Amino acid sequence: MPPILPDFSNSVKLKYVKLGYQYLVNHILKLTFIPVVAGILIEVLRFGPEEIVNLWNSLHFDLVQILCSSFFIIFIATVYFISKPRSIYLVDYACYKPPVTFRVPFSTFMEHSRLNLCNNPKSVEFQMKILERSGLGEETCLPPAIHYIPPTPTMEAARGEAEIVIFSAMDSLFKKSGLKPRDIDILIVNCSLFSPTPSLSAIVINKYRLRSNIKSFNLSGMGCSAGLISIDLARDLLQVHPNSNAVVVSTEIITPNYYKGNERAMLLPNCLFRMGGAAILLSNRRSERWRAKYRLVHVVRTHKGADDKAYRCVFEEEDKEGKVGILLSKDLMAIAGEALKSNITTIGPLVLPASEQLLFLLTLIGRKIFNPKWKPYIPDFKQAFEHFCIHAGGRAVIDELQKNLQLSAEHVEASRMTLHRFGNTSSSSLWYEMSYIEGKGRMKRGDRIWQIAFGSGFKCNSAVWKCNRTIKLPTDGPWADCIDRYPVHIPEVVKL
Q: I need a surface site. Which of 20, 263, 276, 351 has the fewest CB within 10 A?
């Protein structure tokens, strides 16, 4: 038999060649600077003491030149510090943890589905198939109004859910951070599908008696990526309002949006979305730098709404019977992939090391000039980030991003476990994932985190954070009583 060739792709030597290449390209300026400095030092050492004194005496300094040079240096330094963006710090955050009385195990969910959809067994069977492959666990929660048979999605019940989720998250944030309600300068609340009057931000202001000059905003209809849009808005406001604190509240109210019809594409959200919410404290105060958990580095937003398919892929409308629901298009994953590609194109040059950018550029040039059939080079984002928080929108979303970004099982562990324990909590899911990473003791000083979220419209938004200090194991939070049980094995299909 002919000898079997070694697998060069897994070769240890090839691995070290790649590591050497990465180190060389990423540190090219340092490696070039060292011999230059060494050469200058050698030349200086060749001079004797008298020659150095003579050289110094030969230099003529004019007082006017010195003053002009000093003024120019001071002017440049002043312009630099004035134009430099303010650092935005994430001081702390808190996630809402529903009580066990809100828990909806598979058996309860399916029993309610059979009773609510007794005239349409095919819809019940469809929901069972979705639930079996969803990646959700037995401890996800729904609000009290959905536990009734039939559900009672009244305005009063929706307000009640909003108050439970938002007030619980805010109270936890006040306790963890030591923040006083009067110290909040900016308040941003995002909730896509529930927009009452007065607004949710007004409910918060009324509850905590916030100041009359507070700058408050209420974002609705912006989907699961609205949390990062709120972070971006808070960043922009903190750039123009010095010495300020901003609180961002991200949630989705389930009560008024539970679909009671038979359209399959609209039944899907019933199987995936669950209760959840988070409150985040951001600040531009320098005094917060030492105790803040993270520093905001980048926010990149991509909107594909100019395309009709992208615009309608997540759409709220009435079905044939006049019942309102959220329609999820079959093209959703393909559209999400295109949005992610556009977002990566923008964020890549901001975060990727020079070695990855050079390989991408060379491959692009090779495809344009030599062979268009060359496989495009996918940058290794593991060189840019230690942690990934992918929106827990569903198992398919996490699978697709893991495949496209070539991530390991550990990189997507936080997303999968969040989906399993809490379900799709919409815009707040990213913060449950951050809390999971902290609960596992993996967040170290200097670590970089990439948050990726998708939302209706269609949008793909990214936020990049840098860990400001090594995070101690939390004693509270949504994972406090179950972190030791995770990660758990999630089968492809859970037979019900």
A: 20
Average pLDDT over residues 280-290: 94
With beta carbons less than 8 A apart as the criterion, state whether 268 and 295 touch. Answer: no
Give the DSSP H or E segment for 111: helix 106-116
**Closest CA relative to residue 129, chosen from 118, 119, 121, 138:** 121
Determine whether 489 is an active site residue. Answer: no
DSSP letter (8 states) at residue 175:
H
147 is catalytic: no
At 352, is the secondary structure helix, strand, or coil? coil
Is 387 considered catalytic here? yes
* C-alpha closest to that of 98 among 482, 438, 471: 482
Cα–Cα distance, 29 to 269 (Å, whole number): 51
Active site residue 424: yes
Entry pTM: 0.86
- Rounded to whole angstroms, the Cα distance separating 325 from 122 reads 18
Identity of the residue numbered 364: L
- Separation of alpha carbons 479 and 421, rounded Å: 9
**Is 224 among the catalytic positions?**
yes
Show the tokens assigned to 410: 């550990």
Q: 391, 411, 460, 467: which one is catalytic?
A: 391
Q: Give the Cα separation of 247 and 215 in Å (integer).
A: 11
User: DSSP secondary-structure letter at 349?
Assistant: H
* 157-193 pLDDT, tens digit each: 999 999 999 999 999 999 999 999 999 999 999 999 9
Q: Confirm whether 241 is a catalytic residue.
A: no
Asked if the model's pLDDT at residue 402 lies above 80, the reply is yes
CA distances from 200 to 237, 251, 253, 379 (A): 20, 10, 11, 41
How far apart are the C-alpha atoms of 218 and 397, rounded to whole Å?
Answer: 27
Cα distance between residue 246 and residue 204, in whole Å: 14
CA distance 164 to 443: 30
